[in-house]
C-alpha cells in the first residue's frame, strides 16, 4: 500500500479519521465525505482498502479492541493478584472515558446504531465482549474460582452500567463506583485463601 511523505498509509489515515469522528459524533452521523476529507484520501482508497463504510467501522472496532488488549496486557503484567487484573479493566475504562469525552462505551454505542443480528458491526462488538469476558474468566479461574461464569456476568453488568453512567454524568465517577462494586463482588466470590492475600 502506498504511503505519504509522513509514512502514513491511506488505510491508516482512514482509520485514524474514522476513530476520531466516530468517538466524537457517532458512527451513522459521520458520512463518508467527512471521513475522506479528514483523512485526505480519495474515495477509491476507502473502497479498495475496506470495501464499504460498514467494513471500515468493523476495522475501527477491531482496531480499538486490539489496542485495548495490548494496553491491558502491558499493564496487567505488572500486577500479581488476579483480582487486581480484573479491576484494571475498570481503571482503564475510567481513563478512556475522560480521554473520549465521556461518550460512553464505544461498543455499546455501536450496538445501538447497528442492532441487526448478524450484522458485521454487531459481530465485531460480540468479539470484543467475548474477549473481555474470557479475560475475566481466566483471571477468576487463576484466583481459584471453580465456576467463573456467574461472576463474569455480574462484572459485565457493572462494567456496562459504569460506562453508561459516565455518558450521562459526564464524569468517570460512575465507572469508578462500578469498580468499587466489582471489588466487593470479587471479595465475596473468591475463595477465602485468595482474598486473604
TrEMBL record:
SUPFAM superfamilies: Homeodomain-like, Tetracyclin repressor-like, C-terminal domain. Keywords: DNA-binding, Transcription, Transcription regulation. It comes from the Bacteria. It comes from Streptomyces gibsoniae. This is Helix-turn-helix domain-containing protein. Gene3D superfamilies: Tetracycline Repressor, domain 2. Residues 8-68 form the HTH tetR-type domain. Residues 31-50 bind DNA. InterPro entries: Homeodomain-like_sf (IPR009057), HTH_TetR (IPR001647), Tet_transcr_reg_TetR-rel_C_sf (IPR036271). Pfam families: TetR_N.
Amino acid at each position: 500500500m502506498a504511503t505519504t511523505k509522513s509514512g502514513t498509509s491511506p488505510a491508516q489515515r482512514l482509520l485514524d479519521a474514522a476513530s476520531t469522528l466516530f468517538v466524537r459524533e457517532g458512527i451513522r452521523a459521520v458520512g463518508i465525505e467527512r471521513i475522506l476529507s479528514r483523512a485526505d484520501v480519495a474515495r477509491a482508497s476507502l473502497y479498495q482498502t475496506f470495501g464499504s463504510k460498514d467494513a471500515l467501522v468493523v476495522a475501527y472496532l477491531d482496531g480499538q479492541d486490539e489496542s485495548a488488549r495490548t494496553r491491558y496486557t502491558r499493564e496487567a503484567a505488572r500486577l500479581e493478584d488476579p483480582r487486581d487484573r480484573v479491576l484494571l479493566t475498570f481503571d482503564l475504562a475510567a481513563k478512556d472515558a475522560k480521554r473520549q469525552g465521556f461518550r460512553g462505551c464505544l461498543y455499546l454505542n455501536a450496538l445501538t446504531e447497528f442492532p441487526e443480528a448478524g450484522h458485521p458491526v454487531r459481530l465485531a462488538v460480540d468479539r470484543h465482549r467475548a474477549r473481555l469476558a474470557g479475560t475475566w474468566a481466566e483471571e477468576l479461574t487463576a484466583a481459584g474460582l471453580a465456576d467463573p461464569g456467574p461472576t463474569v456476568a455480574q462484572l459485565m453488568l457493572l462494567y456496562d452500567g459504569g460506562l453508561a453512567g459516565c455518558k450521562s454524568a459526564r464524569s468517570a465517577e460512575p465507572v469508578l463506583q462500578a469498580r468499587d462494586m466489582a471489588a466487593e463482588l470479587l471479595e465475596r466470590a473468591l475463595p477465602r485463601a485468595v482474598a486473604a492475600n
